[in-house]
Amino acid sequence: MTIKERIGFVTLTLAAALVGGAVSGHIFAARAVDAAAAPKLMTAQKFMLVDAKGNTRGEFNVTSRGVAQLGIFDGTGTLRAGLGVGADGAPALGIFGHDGKPRIEVGLANSVARIVLYNPNALPQATLAVATDGQSALDLLDNTGNPRASMVVATNGAPTLRLADRHGARVGLDVTPDGLPGLALLGADGKTRASVTLNADGAGAFTLFDANGNANSSVP
């Protein structure tokens, strides 16, 4: 399995800024090396970095899929961090646990900036994303990978909170752009069965819906 496949390449522009800050000191130090002793050009498809015992601690290569990737390994040979850029320009940063399983991804894919946090079983449990149109979202999943809660702020500024069971959304809470709040209770089929809303005139309403999602009674 390549570093790209293990990272997943779900990405964020923040990665570039962090990496730039982290390695800048090493770049400046390298420039102090005697220029006459430094080779003018080195060309290779793969570079390996080993410690004093011959253990691989770093790998820099380009995969058959055109992914330029850098992998950092601990003393046992387990991948702990990976940085790569796909042939399509998508960058990604991955952080791995002692067992080599992904725990954090930071990246940019399809112009969506996203951070993903994984549980010890390598299943995603939290995702934070921001799209190019300004829409932002936070998703929380259970320990089996099922979405259980989400909060989205639309481009018009309207927030929506959804709570779900393992099959789908069951509760929805939102505020319209003009400041009107609403609460909806959904059945197992995803259709609204009851709602509480506040109208523009300040009056509240409680509405019940039939199995087809049609309103059949309301108070007032």
Description of the structure:
The protein is mainly beta. The protein is built from 2 helices and 16 strands. The chain has a 16-stranded antiparallel sheet. The longest helix is centred in the N-terminal third of the chain and has 17 residues. The chain starts with a helix and ends with a strand.
Provide the descriptors you would attach to this structure in a database record.
220 residues, 2 helices, mainly beta, 16-stranded antiparallel sheet
Briefly characterize the structure.
With 220 residues, the chain is mainly beta.
- Name the average pLDDT: 84
Tally the beta strands.
16
Strand content: over 45%
Measured as a percent range, the helix fraction is: 10-25%
Strand order in the largest sheet: 1-2-3-4-5-6-7-8-9-10-11-12-13-14-15-16
Task: Tell me the radius of gyration.
Answer: 25 Å
Runs in which pLDDT lies below 50 for 5 or more consecutive residues are 1-33
**Shape from CA axes?**
elongated
Report the order of strands and helices: HHEEEEEEEEEEEEEEEE
| Count of DSSP H/I helices | 2
Please give the alpha-carbon distance between the first and last residues: 61 Å
Structural category: mainly beta
**Biggest pleated sheet:** 16 strands, antiparallel
List the helices and strands and how they pair.
Elements: H1 3-7, H2 14-30, E1 46-50, E2 56-62, E3 68-73, E4 79-85, E5 91-96, E6 102-109, E7 112-118, E8 124-130, E9 136-141, E10 147-153, E11 159-164, E12 169-175, E13 181-186, E14 192-198, E15 204-209, E16 215-219
Antiparallel strand pairs: 1-2, 2-3, 3-4, 4-5, 5-6, 6-7, 7-8, 8-9, 9-10, 10-11, 11-12, 12-13, 13-14, 14-15, 15-16
